[in-house]
Amino acid sequence: MGFSQDGETKNEAKTGEDRQPCVLAIVRGLPHRCWKCARDITCVIAIHTQDWSHSEDWRWFHDKAVLVLAKQLVEAAGRLFLADTIKTRYSNTAGGSYLSNGCEHCDALQGDWPLGEAVQSWVEARPLCELPILAAQLISQSTWDQLAMRPSHKRIGYPVTWDQVR
Fold first, then answer.
1. Do the bridges between strand 9-10 and strand 2-3 make them parallel or antiparallel, or are there none, so unpaired?
2. Which of 104, 116, 105, 109 is nearest to 94 (CA)?
3. Where are the domains of the chain?
4. How confident is residue 53, by pLDDT bands cut at 50, 70 and 90?
């Protein structure tokens, strides 16, 4: 798997000697409460590799390429109901549509800014490593490198220092 300029994934199937090294990609979720129906849900918020050491090693949900890959990894792990909550929705607040987390019960968009604030609240109470693991799948090193090198991986609304992670 790789990424095009617009964040869409593309396949890079390799066989035989062309196989690339792989890394274990881990998708993390955030227990959350839907703002609309007030039911408990899980939102997909980050991907990291098994050898992360601080929060800057994580790739966050506001980068839509992260959500595209996370959706694929969660699907591959057999959690289709959760993968189906990631889709393009219209946001009145943003004034347009974007790929987002949504409520599995009422399909309400779970906005990037409120989720960022929820992540900040989480790390004020407990470490990031306690966030639930939603999937763990091998991906090519080049796929991870493409994701890690994308220009926008600043966290929105939740400045986490590396010493808060573990």
1. antiparallel
2. 109
3. 21-164
4. confident
